[in-house]
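Quick question about two entries, pasted in order.
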Amino acid sequence: MKFDLHIHSKYSGDCRMDPADILKTAKKVGLDGVAITDHDTVRGGLEASRIDSDVEVITGAEIRTDRGEVIGYFLNEEIKRKDFFEVTDAIRDQGGIVCIPHPFDIFRIHRVKPTDEVLEVVDCIEVLNSRCIVGAQNEKARRLAEERGMGMTAGSDAHYVSEIGASGVIVDSPEDVGNKNVEIFGGTVSLRDFAVKKITRVFR
């Protein structure tokens, strides 16, 4: 099964994609599943999970904490806390898994620094984010996950339908998401394409 594990919807605030359109596009590009990980809310994932679709939906959220952004997968309720360790506890209380996205992307001011203290409470690391335009940033994340024997995730970080499916993982079942023995697929967007999207968003 091919999953894109980092997609935003209109509920993120910096994106206009409707959950229904995400699922239609995901099916069109050959994905079997998606994780909708809106900023600080599970609304997009919950809405998508209620839509009749062949595409598997993992409800998640990319939550901004006092240490940076952390993704929770397999959520069913909002998490309003902001303390990093309280957020990781809240994710686990829902039976979810904890992931650090884009940990080495120097252009993300809200990234979590993967210190020993942080990694002790994290299940997996995002080792390929298609919006990390410097390839070495993803490579460094993958090396860290491999050295630590941690789970790995990957995703497009899509804010536009054209980005959906740019990267992700191949697993036998949704239960394998977040494991260390997943196959990673895809790549990063070009600097030109990324810049065009940023400019378009400012002036649209």
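Here is the second entry:
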Amino acid sequence: MKYEDLDLLLSRAENGFTARVVHSPAGDGQCTEFGPLFSDLEVENFELRIARGKTRTRRVEAGPVADAKRFGAVLFDSVFAGDTRECLRRSQDYARERQAMLRIRLRLADCPELANLPWEFLYDAREDSFLALSVATPLVRYSQLPDPPRAVTGSLPLRVLVIRSEPTDLPELQLEDEWAQVNAAVRGLSQSGAVTFTPLAKPTLGELRLALMQGRFHVLHFMGHGSFTEETGGVLYFTGADGRAVAVTAADLGVILRDHTSMRMAVLNACEGARTDPGDPFAGVAETLVRRGVPAVVAMQFEFTDQAAVEFAPALYGALAAGLPVDAAVTEARKAVYTVSPVEWATPVLHLRAQDATLFSLSAPTASSTVPPGQLPPRHDRESREPHGGQGTAPRREQSGSAPPKSPPPILPPGMAAISIRRSTEWLGRARGYSVIINGKLAGKVRSGQREIYPLPPGTYRVMIKMDWYSSPEYSVTVAPGECATFVCSHTEAMKSMTNPSSYYELVRE
């Protein structure tokens, strides 16, 4: 999908605000001024009115939908008037002539008092359409920051880490029921191998850190409570060891996520995840995570019902797995929500720092990387990207001494198993890697003091190590779902004495 960008910068003016086009296919510099839009009370009353429209009725133009159109028309007519409206029309024409779409990117950092308005309701009365409900005009809240991220490349599946947090001292959310419905809705994606969902064992920050150390994930999906106060800013409520709520700020979460370059997106199904401080545009959870390096964050500006969540998740992840840019994927998910709720589609807010909205380049597994029974699937760490300095991400390994502590088992996709190879620290061949051979195929290499983990379907496998023309005896192992068979490999005494070359290497199961 090819997109052109129209960037609209909102800033303060002497008598109100200015909307200025800073980039578009039709040029830049066009601007319009507008006064204050809505009072806090008017926005609150609007939110209450549309809350009544979260289920469909037989009326074609139900009250909440009409309210949404009136509210959205005020927003649209304020920022797209005169020269800016002409720029929008010309940009749309330009995109259509080139068989492209037009991405609308709002920049709100200069006037945070406008950031809490539901801009997702922008409504073009002439076209009788909400901009955010069409892939031809997706709407994002854009933060232009240094070092824009590049897409993660690799092969499917899209891997989603799910956190369900329901502390005992906060109102019950019935997340078990909600996730059961969502899980049932995405079962087709899981069974096809397009997406895998891994629930976090415990909804704690420490458990999240361990999970990210042991596996690669593309998306973090949080379900739980959130809040926003002027004192703390935006927080998500994880669960402590005693079952009570632990407030985790976006800064705290950003520290844990920052170094995990495969994590391209966070979906926050929590109240007020999209809220910010009128005096500080980066106080909210979503904005802070974006500034901390997460390329895209979807957060909720209103309460999101279970019915809407069940439609949103499979549509979003299915579109991402199909290769759509994140804004187009969110738009498709909005349309899925629209089928059950005429106004809740505007609840998700997409915050973006990626330049072209392409977060993933995940291809279908090639013939050499498919996962038929008895063969090795692609490894988790075979993905690469070019972060920061243009260097690829190194494979996941555990550095250790000659006798490293036993690490916790890896977090695996549902129904998968694994084989783990650890190499002892010996003096010979320290800089070279042993080739790991599984079922006669090269799986990778492991060097001195390192460990490699190979996720694969349950079954029986033949494992050996090799360097140059020498190899270890072949070891047969059967692994069940969720099981990780761990081996240690090393030189034998025969190698050290250069005698009996048929037994230079050994592979022992731990």
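Reply: DSSP finds eleven helices and 27 strands in the chain. The longest strand covers residues 3-13. Hope that helps.
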